[in-house]
Amino acid sequence: MSDVLDQITPDESTDAPKPAETAHWRREDRGGRITLWLDCEGTGTNVISEAVLRELDTLLDEAKQAQPDVLVIRSAKPGGFAAGADIDGFADLRGEGAVEMLKQGHAVLDKLAALPFPTVAVVHGATLGGGFELALACDHRIGVDGVKLGFPEIQLGLHPGLGGTFRLTRLIDPVAAMQMMLTGKSAHDRKAKKLGILDALVPERHVDAAIDAAAKGKLTHDNGGFKATALRTRAARSLAANRMRSESEKQAPRAHFPAPFALIDLWQDHGGDPQRMQSAEIASFAELLDSTTAQNLIRVFFLRRRLKSGAGEDDGIAHVHVIGAGAMGAEIAAWSAMQGKRVTIEDVKLAPLGDTIRRAAKIYEKKHLSGIDARDALDRLMPDPDGLGRARADLVIEAAPEKAELKESIYAELTNVMKPGAILATNTSSLRLADLVDAAPDPALFAGQHFFNPVSSMPLVEVVSHDLASDATLDRLAAFTAGIDRLPARVADYPGFLVNRVLAPYMMEAMVMLDEGHDKVAIDRAALAFGMPMGPVSLADQVGLDICLEVAGSLNAGLDVPVAETPEWLVKKVEAGETGKKAGKGLYDYGSEKPPKEPADRPDPAIIDRLILPMCNAAVECLRKGVVADAETADAAVIFGTGFAPFRGGPLHYAKVRGDVQEVLARLEKQHGPRFAPDPGWGDFG
């Protein structure tokens, strides 16, 4: 009998209390070590929800009673530790309801922090937001190679709300901690170790040894060092806080983004007293949650999820062949290979193929791929000067220059070469698919897949239909887009599709305003004050003035109401080779000028209306014409394709909230002409 009892774990003993039944956690007892595995039910990604914390609370009580040598918290999900808090659970909370929920969450993490035995969080992959805060409540953090830790809450108009503000600023250099929270940038494995967030960084095979070291008190950290001690006085924090406010104002004005300033105030006022900072964190988070900025940014979060969730899962695409190794083709190829696809890329010249490999290596370094992962991605990316991949690929992406004759000649070469069932997708941004489809090998297997430059930074891809494209083709392209971690927006064939149709008036109206004598810096700074990521003059230079002329010409040839007329001086500038930033000179002279990055303090509202309201008008037009299925998709596509001020919720949401856009457009039409005429769709919108 004694032999049998020796084989029974404490939880299996008839005298021991039965462990709580949990949906999101699994408990493992082994040799004085209790491991709590976070494994959220029904999803491939862990999030920190009210249910997760409630179950953890019970498990912590059990652990305290069991008195193990060490308590370990890990994730059972291969993708990462936890992606953050469950936004669905708090998005609709307000006032006292939000405060009460936060207090309950804090109580659980405080209980974890107060346990009388060593506690260790073993973190891998994405460890963000509430997941990071859970790890911070442990005595030690052991990172597995490749881990990424951060607080992205600022992107939702919030700051950390489960103890992150006071725990991180006490753990590491407070200024470094504040920078992480203010920017939302993540600390990847080695940086996190250097900052002191991680007590150890190890490969998976060494995790057990690192846990044993933590249990024996052999892992230590210095609690932020000398600087942390120096900044525990309010006077010292005030100096640092003022610098932070100045930098934050340049990037995100207080009028539009209250969260950074609330966080700075929080640290300045209470950074020397963790208990007071905890109470202030709860109150500040609840107040921010009720702000217009946070509600709009949370809406954008759901719009992103909506785009991705409608994509389907099975694309049947393992091999991608890219035709054209210019900037766009190279980025598409490099990104697809990074996301696990086998990629071949061809070009009529050899040099761009070599440039593609160099570009890919830089992208992988910027995205913090490990040496092994970068090598594997480069192994999947194969220069193919002979075009052998054409016959083997499941998807051929044509990324040739914007000349219909050239694209048609490529399609002719692909006829009877592509394998049965393979899709041909064009990355055109200015040509109508209706004008290209007759040249395609199989119209049903032909569609648009419009990436935005640079692909490695811009998340949106327009999946463009036409009358002869099959639903299966469009579904597979949407699934492929989501599978390479981009956001598919389904749109119909139309001049400029959706995003360029909405964006073109923004840039072309600026050209007319320059023609009228407006100052280019004042135009750009007004747009930045509205919340655009780049002023229209700077953007035109960035895109290329030659491309702007092509897009404007294409739009004006196909639209019922044209965009602004192109000034003659702009045509001459392009003919002279002054095509923008790529040429060193365009609307700005990049040898002697820098486009403004700071928004105007008192922007002219008339300038903003002339730039922004035509975008709203174009979005309504696209909705009326069926270019896009609904207002939510339109707003999401414009935000993720152009960077349209996310805190305003998108052009259609902004118009709805503002309420007078149609009337202001009518006034602008009288002043400046028919390009401002309110679209007939305004009567149905709103």
TrEMBL record:
Keyword line: Fatty acid metabolism, Lipid degradation, Lipid metabolism, Lyase, Multifunctional enzyme, NAD, Oxidoreductase
SUPFAM superfamilies from the UniProt entry: 6-phosphogluconate dehydrogenase C-terminal domain-like, ClpP/crotonase, NAD(P)-binding Rossmann-fold domains
GO biological process terms, semicolon-separated: fatty acid beta-oxidation
Keyword Acetylation in record: no
Catalytic reaction equation(s): a (3S)-3-hydroxyacyl-CoA + NAD(+) = a 3-oxoacyl-CoA + NADH + H(+)
Region described as Disordered: spans on this chain: 1-25
GO molecular function per UniProt: enoyl-CoA hydratase activity; long-chain (3S)-3-hydroxyacyl-CoA dehydrogenase (NAD+) activity; NAD+ binding
Keyword Nucleus annotated: no
3-hydroxyacyl-CoA dehydrogenase C-terminal domain residues: 496-590
EC code(s) of this entry: 4.2.1.17
Pathway assigned in UniProt: Lipid metabolism; fatty acid beta-oxidation
Gene3D superfamilies (UniProt xref): 1.10.1040.50, 2-enoyl-CoA Hydratase, Chain A, domain 1, NAD(P)-binding Rossmann-like Domain
Enzyme class, broadest EC rank: lyase
InterPro entries: 3-OHacyl-CoA_DH_CS, 3-OHacyl-CoA_DH_NAD-bd, 3HC_DH_C, 6-PGluconate_DH-like_C_sf, ClpP/crotonase-like_dom_sf, Enoyl-CoA_hydra/iso, FA_oxidation_alpha_subunit, NAD(P)-bd_dom_sf
Stretches assigned to the 3-hydroxyacyl-CoA dehydrogenase NAD binding domain: 319-493
Pfam family, one: 3HCDH_N
Family stated for the protein in its record: In the N-terminal section; belongs to the enoyl-CoA hydratase/isomerase family. In the central section; belongs to the 3-hydroxyacyl-CoA dehydrogenase family.
The name this protein goes by in its record: enoyl-CoA hydratase
